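> forwarded from #structure-qc
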């Protein structure tokens, strides 16, 4: 039996976790990462998650706006793309088609940032 690390996003054997790490789902190795780095990894995950949802809510948009001002460049960039997507087409259904038709630039950004993977 292993345990899931939410930072490296994979199953690891139990011995890779400390007692505390078990509960927080962070392995020993990831627990040693600087807090900012750990946070950034989780925030990138979070941003991908919004695209996977069937709908990006108002509450999500507020959160994304906050992430746009992250000091982490990647987090800020991804958040700004998803924020824009959430504004023009919050519903996942038919989103890519809609973007291809009306917001080609935005679709290109989804592609360039690999965010488009969240749609597959
Ligand atoms: Zn880990």
């Amino acid at each position: 039996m292993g345990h899931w690390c939410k930072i490296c996003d994979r199953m690891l054997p139990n011995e890779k976790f400390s007692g505390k790490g078990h509960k927080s789902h962070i392995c020993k190795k990831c627990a040693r990462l600087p807090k900012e780095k750990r946070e950034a990894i989780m925030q990138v995950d979070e941003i991908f998650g919004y695209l996977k949802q069937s709908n990006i809510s108002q509450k999500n948009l507020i959160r994304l706006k906050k992430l746009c001002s992250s000091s982490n460049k990647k987090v800020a960039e991804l958040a700004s793309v998803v924020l824009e997507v959430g504004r023009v087409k919050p519903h996942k259904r038919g989103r890519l088609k809609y973007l291809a038709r009306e917001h080609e630039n935005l679709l290109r950004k989804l592609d360039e940032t690999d965010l488009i993977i969240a749609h597959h």
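QC bot note: The chain has two domains: 1-33, 34-119. Residues 34-119 form one domain.
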